[in-house]
Amino acid sequence: MQTDIDPRSLIGRKAYDRQGTKIGTVDEVYLDDATGEPEWAAVRTGLFSRDAFVPLEPSRLVDDALHIPYDRKLIKDAPDFGVGRHLSPEQELQLYHHYRLDITSPADIDRPPADKNFGNIAGSDD
């Protein structure tokens, strides 16, 4: 998402799916623990409905509305963690899998490859 947007300014904005169908209203914005950048938004999907978590990347702010490049059904089927609480790393991982997002972090790119001999038994010569 555009990084020059104040995450607090997203709250209350309308949210639309990839077809342009209104999904609901942005209820909360969640920041990445490591970078402090906005990463997820909770969108209230109806008057008596729950909030659905949506990724802010690759979503876009267009004409004062959040446009989420996923189908309404996928968004409404997102894992429900409730709002007003911190997302755990496990919950974030579930969301990444749900939206089929790349979970490689910038730190992973610079990390050397793992030792491929992890299957050897300690003390063996193999």
What this model shows, in words?
The protein is an alpha+beta fold and 126 residues long. The chain is built from three helices and six strands; from the N terminus they run ββββββααα. The protein has helices at residues 72-76, 89-98, 106-110, and strands at 14-16, 22-31, 38-44, 51-55, 60-62, 65-67. It has a six-stranded mixed sheet with strand order 4-3-2-1-6-5. It is globular, with a radius of gyration of 18 Å. It starts with 13 loop residues before the first strand and ends in a 16-residue tail after the last helix.
Draw up the topology in text.
Blueprint lengths: L13 E3 L5 E10 L6 E7 L6 E5 L4 E3 L2 E3 L4 H5 L12 H10 L7 H5 L16
Helix content: 10-25%
Number of helices: 3
**Average pLDDT level:** 82
How do the strands line up in the largest sheet? 4-3-2-1-6-5
What radius of gyration results from the CA coordinates?
18 Å
The backbone outline, from C-alpha atoms, is globular
Termini, distance in Å? 49 Å
Structural class: alpha+beta
Unreliable spans are 106-124
